[in-house]
Design brief:
Structural class: mainly alpha
Low-confidence stretches: none
Number of strands: 2
Radius of gyration: 37 Å
Number of helices: 6
Oligomer: single chain
Length: 191
């Protein structure tokens, strides 16, 4: 009978093969884990981008709807002035109450009419508004300018809006540009 004993070199060789196989399985597992993690991370990022884009689209639509509603209110005010020789303060209030802006366009601060005033007409304008029952009325900020633009009608005429009464929108360059654009085009313009 012959007995064959494994030689130490064969045993070492088998151990090396097993170790190499285990390392290969470990490396393949790690590689598969890294690839799976990358794919999951990529899918999560793509989903986040899609959700963010959808949220941005929804916000954009809401902003556009709100701006269209503001433009319609302004065009309604323009129509009021076009249909009348003069518009008095109580007529502006009636217009505001009729369109129910607080119900149809929540979040607005006020709807106003700003009058363009030549520098030489400023004293007469201020005297005229004071005679309507506003003894402290003055166009502000003070200072000499060629042309003034005073908010003379503003609804609702209470709270923070009272501070805007008489404010010269032309004194602020961005508002001056957008108001001039609206005046020249007949269309609403944003500042």
């Amino acid at each position: 009978m012959d007995f064959f004993l494994s030689s130490p070199s064969r045993w070492i060789h088998r151990k090396r093969v097993r170790t190499a196989a285990a390392l290969a399985v470990l490396l393949l597992g790690l590689l598969a884990s890294v690839l799976a993690g990358w794919q999951v991370g990529h899918a999560i990022r793509e989903d986040a981008i899609r959700r963010f884009a959808a949220s941005c689209d929804a916000i954009t639509i809401k902003i556009e709807e709100r701006l269209r509603a503001y433009a319609l209110m302004l065009q309604g005010g323009q129509g009021l002035f076009a249909a009348s020789d003069t518009v008095e303060r109580d007529e502006w209030r009636t217009y505001f109450e009729t369109i129910e802006a607080d119900r149809t366009v929540p979040g607005y601060e006020g709807i106003g009419f700003s009058l363009l005033i030549a520098a030489e007409d400023l004293p007469a304008h201020e005297a005229s508004v004071r005679a309507e029952g506003f003894p402290d009325y003055r166009v502000n900020p003070p200072g000499p300018r060629e042309v003034y633009s005073s908010i003379v009608y503003l609804e609702p005429f209470r709270g923070r809006n009272l501070r805007a009464f008489g404010y010269d929108l032309f004194s602020f360059p961005a508002r001056h540009r957008s108001m001039a654009k609206a005046r020249d085009s007949g269309l609403p313009a944003l500042s």
